[in-house]
């Protein structure tokens, strides 16, 4: 299980295991990781972990989020990455070891989900997401792949020059977790991700 080492002024303050799929970092008490310093935004950043991959996302913080000296919006974390949030330095440690419990593993099954087309001649049409991977779009033009894992559903842009949109923002090559009601735009065809 990956973890982060949080230091300030060169002193290690604490080690935090990334035990949840999404963990928020900020000054306000409701965050998973609270950093009490006025230069830290109320909701500064979040780390999303899907299987062995962790992604850092800046939550439009005032002072920015930096990885290895570069300001980032979203970043795929690698072992040893140095994250700077205001006065804090955070080292990402990926041990590549998944937690093992004494009990036999019970496979988690994500809830059923589907894609519903919102516009055009196929409006109202639904596509069940019951396979490990579902591809949408045309090869060479624009393709989105939706992965179904124990942790839930995630979408990524895998092929084509045109960049698809997720909730109005460009969808990148790294898997983005999907939430109920999220909207995908594939060359003008709007589709909603629905759970249940």
TrEMBL record:
<dbReference type="InterPro" id="IPR000253">
    <property type="entry name" value="FHA_dom"/>
</dbReference>
<dbReference type="InterPro" id="IPR008984">
    <property type="entry name" value="SMAD_FHA_dom_sf"/>
</dbReference>
<feature type="domain" description="FHA">
    <location>
        <begin position="23"/>
        <end position="72"/>
    </location>
</feature>
<protein>
    <submittedName>
        <fullName>FHA domain-containing protein</fullName>
    </submittedName>
</protein>
<dbReference type="InterPro" id="IPR050923">
    <property type="entry name" value="Cell_Proc_Reg/RNA_Proc"/>
</dbReference>
<dbReference type="Pfam" id="PF00498">
    <property type="entry name" value="FHA"/>
</dbReference>
């Amino acid at each position: 299980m990956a973890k982060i080492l949080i230091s300030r002024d060169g002193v290690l303050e604490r080690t935090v295991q990334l035990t949840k799929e999404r963990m928020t970092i900020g000054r306000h008490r409701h965050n998973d990781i609270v950093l009490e310093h006025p230069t830290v935004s109320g909701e500064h950043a979040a780390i999303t972990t899907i299987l062995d991959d962790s992604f850092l996302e800046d939550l439009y913080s005032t002072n920015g989020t930096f990885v290895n000296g570069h300001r980032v919006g979203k970043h795929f974390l690698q072992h040893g990455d140095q994250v700077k949030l205001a006065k804090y330095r955070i080292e990402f440690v990926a041990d590549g070891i998944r937690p093992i419990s004494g009990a036999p593993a019970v496979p988690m099954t994500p809830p059923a989900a589907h894609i519903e087309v919102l516009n055009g001649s196929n409006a109202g049409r639904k596509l069940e997401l019951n396979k490990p991977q579902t591809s949408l779009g045309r090869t060479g033009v624009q393709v989105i792949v939706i992965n179904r894992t124990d942790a839930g559903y995630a979408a990524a842009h895998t092929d084509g020059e045109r960049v698809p949109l997720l909730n109005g923002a460009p969808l990148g090559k790294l898997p983005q977790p999907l939430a109920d009601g999220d909207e995908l735009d594939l060359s003008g065809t709007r589709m909603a991700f629905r759970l249940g």
